[in-house]
Amino acid sequence: xxxxIIRRAGxxxxxxxxxxxxxxxxxxxxxxxxxxxxxxxxxxxxxxxSLVAQIARHGGEAxxxxxxxxxxxxxxxxxxxxxxDRAEAVExxxxxxxxxxxxxxxxxxxQCASRPWRDSPECL
Length: 124
Fold this sequence. Notes:
Elements: E1 2-8, H1 11-14, H2 21-37, E2 40-45, E3 54-58, E4 61-65, E5 75-82, H3 86-94, E6 107-111
Antiparallel strand pairs: 1-5, 1-6, 2-5, 3-4
């Protein structure tokens, strides 16, 4: 089963401050651990929300907003992993490093659909 582990952004991330060297090193170690275990499919760090383009549909037309609304929770990074079940994915997510000075950093585990949209009976 595939799962996406999502790390929520905090004020420093959204202000554009890069992670400190120690925290960046902890993230690299985490990534390497996932690779050695053979579960990492892909991973990425996302830029601050000020660089996001949001597209909304209005009357059938796609309208681009240069800067999305500020009341949304933003994502700082993600890992797409292969795990045998939700419990294993949650255990990997529990190991996600967060900056030591931050409290309440959210990490979420989402299970990916097993079939692509085009093949899903729910979408027919």
